[in-house]
Write a structure and sequence with these properties.
75 residues; mainly alpha; globular
């Protein structure tokens, strides 16, 4: 991971810490913990307006409609 990116994130969260944290806590976090926190705070930003990831339904429908019938055999 680019150290410059980690430093920018640290400064961002020191200036505006997440709820329940203080700038001192953010300052003392390891790079790994900081990146994990950032991931969990922003993980929903890649979801569409309906709250689901774009490619989910295509995979789900392909599995149910094409793969499952081939595996189940005749009843």
């Amino acid at each position: 991971m680019d150290q410059k990116y980690v430093d920018e994130l640290r400064q961002k969260y020191i200036k505006n810490p997440p709820e329940g944290m203080t700038p001192k806590l953010v300052r003392g976090m390891t790079d790994s913990d900081l990146l994990d926190m950032h991931y969990f705070l922003t993980e929903d930003e890649d979801l569409g307006d309906d709250g689901f990831e774009e490619g989910f339904y295509i995979f789900f429908l392909a599995t149910v409609c094409f793969i499952m019938p081939a595996c189940s055999g005749p009843f």
